[in-house]
Amino acid sequence: MFIFGLLLILFSFHSHANREIISQIYQIDNGIKKSDDVLVLLTNGHVLKISDQDKKRFPPSSYEKSLNEWYQFKLDKNRFIKSMKIIPSPQKSLNFSHPLSLGFLDYTPTTIKTLSLARRYHAQARYNPKESQCFNRAMVWAYEWWKNHEIRSNKIFIFFTRSYIRKFNFEWWFHVAPYVHVLKDGKVVERVMDIKYTSGPLQIPSWTNLFMKNNASCPVITKYSDYADFPYEGDCYIQRTHMFTYQPADLQMYEAWGYSKTNFNFNEVKAAYLEAFDEEF
Q1: Is the pTM of this model over 0.90?
Q2: 54 pLDDT exceeds 90?
């Protein structure tokens, strides 16, 4: 059964061979074999590890019950946890008073008239070489396409299974990017607009192959639980959603309670600008 949690902003940086990450924990995966490393899945999408030798020093049961806490992790160059401690929530400073009123109830994606126009929007999107979180970048791009061009884009998640993460020592359990509808030769096609990793709009299989070391085909799911309830089956899954979706928690809430956003959340947009582009919104 998948675990619900508040998925929020993460701040991270590199210092020589060591790395520090501040985040909440999404889920713990103890593996199948007794000798398996423990995987610590963070709410930002990153995957940390606890070696078999360190299970007594960092017993998963000691923090598996505290998924709402914020942690400061110090890692080695291979993403194994060297130390961890509970810290105050960094979200306390993100206390905003007024919402964005850009919503609409019936979500119909915009069809961009030509591929050349889609390429122009891709080329004009802001880029920052710093390490940042995919969901924050995607939120800023989607918001600015809407604000500047009235484009109602979509988002696409790729979820990596535990089998894939363990086989390839992969460092993420999800990645997200905007995608758009484009008119090409009289037909509407989908193109992913992942400015961080691509030089232009890509077809979905070409985009997923950027991250799949085995070129695996990622089945399409319509419910988040189709991934979360079967974490060891296959290699990856993709799920489409609208541009207001911020993190997997939104997909969880929609499936569980029918809750779906109909506008941009001011707090999320503000946090996205700050974390991904070091700008005040």
Answers
A1: no
A2: no
